[in-house]
Amino acid sequence: MRIGQLASVTGTPVETIRFYEREGLLPAPDRTEGNYRVYTAKHADRLVFIRNCRHLDMALDEVRVLLKFRDALQTDCGEVNALLDEHIEHVSRRIRELKVLEKEMKALRARCSMPHASAECGILQGLEHGDGAPGARGRAAPRHVRGSH
Q: Which position among 65, 91, 113, 134 has the lowest Cβ density within 10 Å, counted as fewest Cβ atoms?
């Protein structure tokens, strides 16, 4: 199948497929004489596996480790268990961070209960001065959720 068919079968954007190829997660497919990529069912199965990992917010390095074990079916899966335990802790830590962020945002939102002139908006003032929510003052970088591809 060609890349468009693989994208359709797996529900994966073409650019994401190319990205996974560049990252070495998806092996490069054979090419036709016309230089079209030709994918197999093995590519589709591997891509579904990668997407399932990414759906669980696993980083590319975590996916690489899991793929290594998936490809070596006779190896002990103790490292897989350890990786998942670490990822669960990461998710738990992120949930705690997001709960703090939610409280900060609610405190900021409480600064402006009804619409009025922007110059008097407590939310804008809080964001301007960094005093809109607990822990916001002096934050060096914005919070972000791990990227997904």
A: 113
